[in-house]
Specification:
Chain A: Keywords: Oxidoreductase, Pyruvate, Thiamine pyrophosphate, Transit peptide. The complex is a heterodimer of chains A (306) and B (324). With 306 residues, chain A is an alpha/beta fold. Chain A contains eleven helices and seven strands. In chain A, 52% of the residues are buried. Chain B folds into two domains: 181 residues, Rossmann fold (3-Layer(aba) Sandwich); 128 residues, 3-Layer(aba) Sandwich (Rossmann fold), CATH 3.40.50. In chain B, helix 8 crosses helix 12 and helix 9 crosses helix 10. The chains are: A alpha/beta (306), B alpha/beta (324).
Chain lengths: 306, 324
């Protein structure tokens, strides 16, 4: 979680320096979900999600150096500089992206799950999406197909209460308990605290166990909060500055730290060492990205077709 | 050689494709119903529900699930009952299938074949009579096939199944009963290779899909007037065989491009533009274009027929532009 946090903070700084361009959607505050959920998976399970994807990518094991290089548009990036922030991919680790069209990843997730069922592999597909996506037709088409075909897919809704700048109360009837939508498709759904990494891990582990047994899809709504704006371009005029405080939002990293100290899992010194290592990793990633070359002009035409 | 109709050629192509375990077919009413155009009749019994999957009416997830399966190493064939319904899935086709290889810089391939039925003339009215292959032919990352004969359908489909790219394979709704000879030995037709369906020295007619046959009718009429038309069937729109077209124009100096979809924004504009860019000095007059009238397809049979290009309009276009 700390690695993701520091990585995202570094991205924010690089964006302000003009080294990362386009759209940048930071995952700050939501780390518990990516980390808690993905750590409950097997390495070859599929993960696919939306454009706020750096956290998912890192949690799935993507090298922060090549992720940062991609964000800086360098040839050493995961997509040779041709994908950018919203399109991180790591085929070897079955991190299937990084998708910029809201809800667009969901039908693809159904395909990934379908493929494991077809190939008789006991892989699970974990599909991340936000509260904005639940109003897209593809959300409904995907839940329906997954349920009717009993696809091995875990739908994980990261409900941070805002679809870009529009509060979920204004976009979804029942926006504080979206998981209930799943029951319309006969998919068991629950709502959990997405700021609690251990709780997320436990819930996802349970769901994944059922899915792997062939019991069909599951739906988890993880309530969370993003501390920064929708993207770096967002002046966040649609919410109060002290909203996080008002809502009593607990930073997931602080929560885990306090837990570990309180229950003697780790001491301050050890945590400080981890923090130092993380800083080193992130600095290394930034340095690598800055030192890497931009793609050649010939890269323009490569990989349009196989 | 075996004589068969176009439907049989596609059915044969699908059967061959299913010999590869990684291939399955997914779409609306392809199984129990036997396929809206009877192409997959009997397949459910023969291959089973695990490989012949009837879907809900959800074009977006049909294509998207095809994309996802392809990303995971399978080689799915998805069916969109008609190209009219492809609009519901256009995001998955254009934003996802076509772009995932580029955006991942080659980490992923999308070996997906999207079979669909195109064209009008069956009095199905405006929303069921369209041909959007030209729109998809604009998209880098996609390939588009528009076969007009059983031979071409089988040959192109074999090539499509070997291709690791997303392919829109558009079969014309009125051509399923078209008869043609198909070799018994294996053959394939590469994409980007047009076919000269009729040789001639006086005028070039470029067409594709059902308009190829309309072009051949026009050629027969021109022959009665002592003119020999060269009819070029493009067979694929992306890539399209520019060289064969240009070579013909350099020989005949007169060309008309015929296309069923609306003239405005049609692919004939792309072809005409290319011809005048690269063979300007070989032209005896402006490139002629005959396309669908710029109206939604009317239901009434006479109106509908008049909105679709016919041989008279081709003859008139040649007369207008080249005085022949």
């Amino acid at each position: 979680m700390l690695l993701i946090r520091r990585f995202e903070e570094a991205c924010g700084r690089l964006y302000m320096q003009g080294k990362i361009r386009g759209f940048l959607h930071l995952y700050i505050g939501e780390e518990a979900i990516a980390v808690g959920a993905i750590s409950a998976l097997r390495p070859d399970d599929y993960v696919i999600g939306h454009y706020r994807d750096h956290g998912h990518a890192i949690a799935k094991g993507m090298d922060p150096k090549i992720a940062m290089a991609e964000l800086c548009g360098k040839s050493t990036g995961s997509s040779g500089g041709k994908g950018g922030s919203m399109h991180l991919f790591d085929v070897e680790r079955h991190f299937m992206g990084g998708h910029a069209i809201v809800g667009g990843q969901m039908p693809i997730a159904a395909g990934l799950a379908l493929s494991s069922k077809y190939k008789k592999e006991d892989l699970v597909t974990l599909c991340f999406f936000g509260d904005g996506a639940v109003n897209q037709g593809e959300f409904h088409e995907t839940l329906n197909l997954a349920s009717v075909w009993k696809l091995p897919i875990l739908f994980l809704l990261e409900n941070n209460l805002y679809g870009m700048g529009t509060h979920v109360d204004r976009t979804h009837a029942g926006g504080r308990h979206i998981y209930e939508v799943a029951s319309a498709y006969d998919i068991p759904g629950v709502q959990i605290d997405g700021m609690d990494v251990l709780g997320v891990n436990e819930c996802v582990s349970e769901a994944v166990k059922s899915i792997r047994k062939g019991e069909g899809p599951r739906f988890i709504e993880a309530m969370c909060y993003r501390y920064r704006g929708h993207s770096m371009a967002d002046p966040t005029m649609y919410r109060e500055r002290d909203e996080a405080q008002e809502l009593g939002i607990k930073d997931p990293i602080d929560s885990l730290k306090n837990f570990m100290i309180q229950f003697d899992v780790a001491g301050e010194e050890e945590l400080a060492k981890i923090a130092a290592k993380v800083d080193e990793q992130v600095n290394e990633a930034v340095q690598f990205a800055e030192d890497s070359p931009a793609p050649d002009m010939d890269a323009m035409y490569t990989n349009v077709y196989a | 050689m075996t004589e068969m109709i176009l439907r049989e050629a596609v059915t044969k192509a699908l059967r061959e494709a299913l010999e590869d375990d990684r291939v399955f077919i997914m779409g609306e009413d392809i199984g129990a119903y036997g396929g809206a155009y009877a192409v997959t009749r009997g397949f459910l019994d023969e291959f089973g529900p695990e490989r012949i999957m009837d879907t809900p009416i959800s074009e977006s997830v049909i294509v998207g699930a095809g994309v996802g399966s392809a990303l995971a190493g399978l080689r799915p064939i998805v069916e969109l009952m008609t190209i009219n319904f492809s609009l519901v899935a256009i995001d998955q086709i254009v934003n996802h299938a076509a772009k995932l290889r580029y955006m991942s810089d080659g980490q992923f391939s999308v070996p997906l074949v999207i079979r669909t039925v195109t064209g009008g003339g069956g009095q199905l009215a405006a929303t069921h009579s369209q041909s959007f292959e030209n729109w998809y032919a604009s998209v880098p990352g996609l390939k588009v096939a528009v076969p007009a004969t059983p031979y071409d359908a089988l040959g192109l489909f074999r090539a499509a199944m070997k291709d690791d790219n997303p392919i829109l394979f558009a079969e014309h709704s009125l051509l399923y009963g078209m008869r043609g000879e198909v070799p018994d030995e294996w053959y394939e037709i590469p994409f980007g290779q047009a076919d000269i369906k009729r040789k001639g020295n006086d005028v070039t007619i470029v067409a594709y899909s059902r308009m190829t046959h309309v072009a051949l009718q026009a050629a027969a009429m021109l022959e009665e007037k002592g003119r020999q038309a060269e009819v070029i069937d493009l067979r694929t729109l992306r890539p399209w065989d520019k060289e064969t077209v240009l070579e013909s124009v350099r020989k005949t100096n007169r060309v008309v491009v015929v296309e069923e979809t609306w003239k405005t924004g049609g692919f004939s504009g792309e072809i005409a533009s290319t011809i005048q860019e690269e063979a300007f000095d070989d032209l005896d007059g402006p490139v002629a274009r005959v396309g669908g009238l710029d109206v939604p397809a009317p239901y009434n049979g006479t109106l509908e027929a008049a909105a679709i290009p016919n041989s008279e309009r081709i003859i008139k276009a040649l007369s207008d532009n080249y005085g022949i």
